[in-house]
Amino acid sequence: MRILLRLLFVSLIASLAGCGAPSTTVFFAEGNCAECQPLIEKALKELKGVHEAAWAFETSLVTVSYDSTRISLDDMEAHLASKGFATGYFEPDTAARRTLPACCQETINRALKSAPSLPSGH
C-alpha cells in the first residue's frame, strides 16, 4: 500500500511540475469593429495553452494569459492570421479573411489611441 501511495504522490508531483507559470503578453491584432472582438478572443481561446484572451477595440491590442511551455507568441499570432486577422508580424490568410463579417474585412480606418510599449517576443 505504501508503494502505491508513493507512486501516486510522485505521479502528482510530476504532473504539476509540467504546468508552466502563466505568462501574459500584449500584441496587435487588427480589428475594425465590435464584431471582431468575440472572433479574435474565441480564436485564441481555442488554442491549447491559452487561458484567457481579451481584445480591446480602442487600441486593437489583445492581452493573452497563456502557458509559455505549451504555446508561443508566434504561434498565437500565426493562428489569428490563419483566421483572417492581421497581427504585428503576420499577414492575414486572404481566404479566411473573406469569411469574416464585412466590417472585419476592412483595414483599420479609425485613429487608434496610443498604445503602451509592447514587449518584444519575436
Largest sheet: 3 strands, antiparallel
Could you spell the SSE succession in H and E letters? HEHEEHHH
Q: Regions with pLDDT < 50 over 5+ consecutive residues? A: 1-18
Number of helices: 5
Explain what you see.
The chain is α+β, with helices and mostly antiparallel strands and 122 residues long. It has helices at residues 2-17, 36-45, 73-82, 94-97, 102-105, and strands at 22-28, 50-56, 61-67. Strands 1-3-2 form a 3-stranded antiparallel sheet, with helices on one face. A hairpin with a 4-residue loop joins strand 2 and strand 3 (61-67). The N and C termini lie far apart (50 Å). Residues 1-18 have low confidence and may be disordered.
Secondary-structure map:
Blueprint: H1 2-17, E1 22-28, H2 36-45, E2 50-56, E3 61-67, H3 73-82, H4 94-97, H5 102-105
Antiparallel strand pairs: 1-3, 2-3
Brief summary:
36% of the residues lie in helices and 17% in strands.
Write out key terms for the chains shown.
single chain; three-stranded antiparallel sheet; 122 residues; alpha+beta; 17% strand
